[in-house]
Design a protein that fits this description.
By secondary structure, the protein is of the alpha/beta class. The chain contains 15 helices and 17 strands. Helix 4 packs across helix 11 and helix 5 packs parallel to helix 6. It binds pyridoxal-5'-phosphate (PLP). The site of pyridoxal-5'-phosphate (PLP) has 14 residues, from helix 5.
């Protein structure tokens, strides 16, 4: 079992998606004359008014560069930007906000691990264990390091339902293992991996761990102290924040030991022609002018989620998932990939309709105002392993409703009729 509902969750307050939808101006839009049903949340989510207003307010009232001036605007921008780090730290229960590095997206956060830690700490023959489920952003950087540093990559397989082979994981982790990387929730199958167990296995041999939480942090409570992971990456734009936001959590001692990946302004304490000393955390890893407004608005997004309560967000999406699985599995001529037991997964559902190419299906659904994704979802090795080429993918969030799932089903049935 991957994500176990704790007793507190049973009491999680119930979300009212109809009320929540009022906070999201874009959800009032019509597409081809039909109300928008946005089911592409695994790619990026929509933003509530509070996030949009935080961006506007910053530019109208506080805009200035951070850390560089004594004037009032710069001070206000610096405090707000620092506070956004504190909100993200609270969101994932980090020990300190100094363990939170803002990045442009999850990809940049994962590259930071590969280049600031991997490049300097791994050498020929060292092993990195990854799962076959990784998104390209936690795969390609390690493939590049294999080219450049001669490291050895071990891949842990999934079973035919897309659940991680823990038996293989245990075998793959040996004293040669220096890092274990795992996706927390699959962006293709929705499968939730037991990351706490993975971290324990890695630590048993002294290996570090990097968790790709891009698809989990927006949907379930994350506690990095409980997980005890060494690095954890997430996308701000998949959790109501602006595009151009993401973050890396890393244990403080690692951030202190490592050298930064990007060099230049803001990340230094002193520079002489003889050498450099680094700025304090986390600025050491945020070279140049950061995305100040976006970072502050990510703080507003996180606050919005915390106000609703992540237990409640999960409980709402769990209901949608159960409803959608039951309805999709009852349709003839439709294959649902990934675990069929909602206990093992989140609300990202990949499926194919017999005789209808996923791009055609996505086009027909768009005519009905329904946004779903079609393609390989940046996880080609997993697709190849499960014999999948392209799939359609519907992914839910806190503002989705059962009515939208009914419309998805009707749209699929329309496609089936058209292609019969
Ligand atoms: C599991 C997973 N990891 C990483 C990423 C990359 O995120 P970003 O686009 O923010 O870099 C994605 C994006 O879809 C994802 O689903």
């Amino acid at each position: 079992m991957a994500y176990v509902a704790k007793p507190a969750q049973a009491k999680a307050k119930e979300l009212d998606p109809h009320r929540i939808r009022e906070d999201f101006p874009i959800l009032q839009r019509e597409i081809h004359g039909k109300p928008l049903a946005y089911l592409d949340n695994a790619a990026t989510t929509q933003r509530p008014k509070v996030v949009i207003e935080t961006l506007t307010r910053f530019y109208e009232r506080h805009n200035a560069n951070v850390h560089r001036a004594v004037h009032t605007l710069s001070h206000e921008a610096s405090v707000a930007y620092e506070n956004a780090h504190k909100k993200v730290a609270k969101f994932i229960n980090a020990r300190s906000w100094r363990e939170i590095v803002f990045t442009r997206n999850a990809t940049e956060a994962l590259n930071l691990v590969a280049y600031a830690w991997g490049f300097w700490n791994l050498s020929e023959g060292d092993e990195v264990v990854l799962t076959i489920m990784e998104h390209h952003s936690n795969l390609v950087p390690w493939l590049m390091l294999r080219e450049r540093r001669g490291i050895v990559l071990q891949f842990v397989d999934v079973d035919d339902r897309g659940r991680l082979r823990l038996d293989q994981l245990r075998e793959a982790i040996t004293p040669k293992t220096k890092l274990v990387g795992a996706i927390h929730a699959s962006n293709v199958l929705g499968t939730v991996n037991p990351v706490q167990e993975i971290v324990e296995e890695a630590h048993r041999v002294g290996a570090l761990t990097v968790i790709d939480a891009a698809q989990s942090a927006p949907h379930i409570p994350i506690d990095v102290q409980e997980l005890d992971c060494d690095f954890l990456a997430a996308s701000g734009h998949k959790m109501l924040g602006p595009t151009g936001t993401g973050f890396l959590y890393a244990k403080r001692e690692l951030l202190e030991q490592m050298d930064p990946f990007l060099h230049g302004g803001d990340m230094i304490a002193t520079v002489t022609l003889e050498g450099v000393t680094w700025n304090e955390l986390p600025w050491k890893y945020e070279a140049g002018t950061p995305s100040i407004a976006d970072g502050i608005a990510l703080g507003a997004a996180v606050e919005y989620l915390l106000d609703l309560g992540m237990e409640a967000v999960y409980a709402h999406e769990r209901k949608l998932l159960e409803y959608a699985l039951e309805r999709l599995l009852s349709l003839e001529g439709l294959v649902v990939y990934g675990p069929h037991d909602p206990e093992d997964r989140l609300g990202v559902i990949s499926f194919n309709v017999e005789g209808v190419h996923p791009h055609d299906l996505a086009g027909i659904l768009d005519e009905e105002g329904i946004a779903v994704r079609s393609g390989h979802h940046c996880a080609q090795p997993l697709m190849a392993r499960l014999g999948m080429d392209n799939t359609a993918r519907a992914s839910f969030y806190l503002y989705n409703t059962e009515d939208e799932i009914d419309r998805l089903l009707e749209g699929i049935q329309k496609a089936q009729r058209l292609f019969r």
